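pinging the channel bc i need a second pair of eyes. not urgent but kinda urgent?? the chain im working w is below, pasted from the shared doc
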Amino acid sequence: MARAGLTADRVVAAAADLADEVGFENVSLSALARGFGVKDASLYSHVRNLQDLRTRVAFLAGGELVDRIAVAVADRAGRDALGAFADAYRAYALEHPGRYAATQIRIDQSLIADSPALRRTAEITYGMLRAYGLEEPDLTDAVRLLRSTFHGYCALESSGGFGAPRDVRRSWERAVDALHVALTHWPREGQPG
């Protein structure tokens, strides 16, 4: 029997909070149950197992991230949209390290197709990139470039990986400027370089 007041949404939200506190990889059903003051078995009425919980946290975090990005890029285009997108991405990654880590896990493709948040992420990202005149397969390549750059930068920044005295924020802005130049002058598939 499910414990009164305990719902799947509450369990997932608590797991996301715990991920931000202790790291996504350290979230366990036992730690979560302790936080609720229940036995581990009580959680199985709400999530199937740890993998199900992790996937649900990934979807929650992905939805939060895309909501931030959507607000940031609304009514913007080109460098302005790219900068707003990048800044929203970076802010979320730094403010919510555990949730952000959840957005990086591999999720079963059959589950992705049913996710409104992931569809919305693709719509917003591809929409922003279409303003640069990109079409497939260049769109996919550009998405991979942005994701790799943003993720790599955020991972290095959050782990203290930038030791030079240069202001990290200024380097971020220059990286976004460089991405804008790359997107503006994208070498189209099939065209000579």
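so The CA atoms of residues 112 and 118 lie 7 Å apart. and Residues 50-73 form the longest helix (24 residues). — does that match what u expected or am i reading it wrong
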